[in-house]
């Protein structure tokens, strides 16, 4: 697809080949100088650990076109840090924060024509990843690695953007109690494919996972974190070692406290206590804030604020967050990095 044929207002979350991607190899114990390449196909050994043993991790962040034409990245340092933690968990060499941010900037600059215009609601999604490659057969860390970043112009991940969606509680787990749930690694997503497909076949936006130990507490959506607002205006979000520490979640915790004056509680969200909440949402880079209209559990749909309207606190969090990302609202120091 060429940039000229993109209908910016109708973008979903689908692969579009953009002009250039960043590519860097780790060989002989060091990262080599990264380059930009037109080729979107990787040529790797059939023995690559990424193919057999899931030795890989990835990130997701966005570049936003502002009203004045400038370009914002949102908290890329946090993505760099999380990727370093994922690498540590999977015995992969990590990329220093400054190298990560510079590579993101290069990819955005090289694909500037693919950034959706201000006002369209779209953004340029960046997908950094590290994979174990090179000839190998035993279960061990790879002899070589690739760090790459490509980008895709995207619209809403869940159709319709800021509109309530229904979710269903899954009886499957996406991660084990002391497994890799807190790392952004492909295995967690492979585990979520079948439950996610089953949820969508029943017309739910996606499924929500419970804690893998007791199956009594909400953990997260397969592609986003969970939050809810209590009847006495507390912002509640699950705290668990098997949940991915989302950067949107982290940002909403700060904004709920500092801008909306809400008390924040990071703790247990019991599935049998959903009537404590008046609003609920899924939050993430791709999901932004997706209001949760209802959650189905054991065949019963629990409805929060409304099935077709967005609660006032969710709405305020959304406009604060997206206002900062698109440069319309001043963010806390360091959140926005100009490209
Ligand atoms: N949880 C999962 C499983 C995710 O895939 C994501 C998306 O990255 C999130 C939570 C939210 O994380 P972030 O806000 O950093 O995008
Ligand atoms: C993100 O929001 O960046 C994600 O990784 C979610 C999904 C596309 C896997």
UniProtKB/TrEMBL annotation:
InterPro entries hit by this protein: Aminotrans_IV, Aminotrans_IV_CS, Aminotransferase-like, B_amino_transII, BCAT-like_C, BCAT-like_N, BCAT_family
N6-(pyridoxal phosphate)lysine modified-residue sites: 184
Pathway this chain belongs to: Amino-acid biosynthesis; L-isoleucine biosynthesis; L-isoleucine from 2-oxobutanoate: step 4/4; Amino-acid biosynthesis; L-valine biosynthesis; L-valine from pyruvate: step 4/4; Amino-acid biosynthesis; L-leucine biosynthesis; L-leucine from 3-methyl-2-oxobutanoate: step 4/4
Functional note: Acts on leucine, isoleucine and valine.
UniProt GO MF annotations: L-isoleucine-2-oxoglutarate transaminase activity; L-leucine-2-oxoglutarate transaminase activity; L-valine-2-oxoglutarate transaminase activity
Pfam families, per database record: Aminotran_4 (PF01063)
Protein EC: 2.6.1.42
GO BP terms, alphabetized: isoleucine biosynthetic process; L-leucine biosynthetic process; L-valine biosynthetic process
Key words, A-Z: Amino-acid biosynthesis, Aminotransferase, Branched-chain amino acid biosynthesis, Pyridoxal phosphate, Transferase
Gene3D superfamilies to which the protein is assigned, alphabetical: 3.30.470.10, D-amino Acid Aminotransferase, subunit A, domain 2 (3.20.10.10)
Membership in a protein family: Belongs to the class-IV pyridoxal-phosphate-dependent aminotransferase family.
Catalytic activity: L-valine + 2-oxoglutarate = 3-methyl-2-oxobutanoate + L-glutamate; L-isoleucine + 2-oxoglutarate = (S)-3-methyl-2-oxopentanoate + L-glutamate; L-leucine + 2-oxoglutarate = 4-methyl-2-oxopentanoate + L-glutamate
Stated name of the protein: Branched-chain-amino-acid aminotransferase
SUPFAM superfamilies the UniProt entry points to: D-aminoacid aminotransferase-like PLP-dependent enzymes
Top class in the EC scheme: transferase
Cofactor: pyridoxal 5'-phosphate
Spans traversing the lipid bilayer: none
UniProt key word Iron-sulfur: no
């Amino acid at each position: 697809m060429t940039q000229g044929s993109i209908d910016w207002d109708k973008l979903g979350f689908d692969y579009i080949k953009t002009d250039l991607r960043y590519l860097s190899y780790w060989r002989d114990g060091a990262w080599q100088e990264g380059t930009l390449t037109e080729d979107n196909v990787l040529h790797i050994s059939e023995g690559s650990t990424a193919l057999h043993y899931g030795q890989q991790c990835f990130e997701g962040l966005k570049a936003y076109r502002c009203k004045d034409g400038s370009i914002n990245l949102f908290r890329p340092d946090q993505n760099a840090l999380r990727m370093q933690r994922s690498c540590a968990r999977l015995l992969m060499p990590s990329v220093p924060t400054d190298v990560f941010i510079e590579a993101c900037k290069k990819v955005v600059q090289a694909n500037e024509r693919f950034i959706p215009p201000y006002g369209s609601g779209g953004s340029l999604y960046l997908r950094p990843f590290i994979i174990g490659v090179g000839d190998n057969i035993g279960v061990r860390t790879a002899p070589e690695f690739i760090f790459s970043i490509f980008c895709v112009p995207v619209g809403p991940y869940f159709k319709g953007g800021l509109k309530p969606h229904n979710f269903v509680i899954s009886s499957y787990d996406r991660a084990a109690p002391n497994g890799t749930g807190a790392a952004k690694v492909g295995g967690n997503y492979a585990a979520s494919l079948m439950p996610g497909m089953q949820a969508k076949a029943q017309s739910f936006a996606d499924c929500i996972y419970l804690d893998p130990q007791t199956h009594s507490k909400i953990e997260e959506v397969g592609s986003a974190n969970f939050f809810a607002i209590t009847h006495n205006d507390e912002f509640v979000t699950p705290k668990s070692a098997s949940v991915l520490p989302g950067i949107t979640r982290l940002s909403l915790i700060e904004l709920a406290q500092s801008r909306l004056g809400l008390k924040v509680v990071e703790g247990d969200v019991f599935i049998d206590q959903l009537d404590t909440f008046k609003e609920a949402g899924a939050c993430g880079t791709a999901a932004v804030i997706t209001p949760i209209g209802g959650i189905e559990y054991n065949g019963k749909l629990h409805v929060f604020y409304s099935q077709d309207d967005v609660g006032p606190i969710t709405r305020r969090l959304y406009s604060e967050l997206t206002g900062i990302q698109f440069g319309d609202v001043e963010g806390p120091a360091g959140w926005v990095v100009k490209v």
